[in-house]
Amino acid sequence: MRGLYIHIPFCVSKCFYCDFYSVSEKLGLMDEYIDVLLAEADSCRGMDFSTLYLGGGTPSILGAERLEKLVIGLRRRFDLHDLQESTIEVNPESAGIDLLATAYRLGIGRVSIGIQSLNDGELKKSGRAHNRRQALETIDSALSSGYRNISADIMIGLPGQTAQSLGETLSVLTGAGINHVSAYCLSVEEGTAFYRCPPPDLPGEDEQASLFEYAVDILKTHGFVHYEISNLARPGSECLHNLNYWRGGEYLGLGPAAASHISGTRFRNSPNLERYLVDPLSDREGEEHLEDASKAGEEAMLRLRLVQEGLDMQKMNNKYGRNAIEGVEARPNKLVGRRSLAREGDVFRLQPAYVLISNSVFIDVIG
Ligand code: SF4
Question: Residues near ligand 1 with C-beta < 6 Å?
Answer without folding.
Answer: 11, 14-15, 18, 20, 22, 56-58, 91, 114
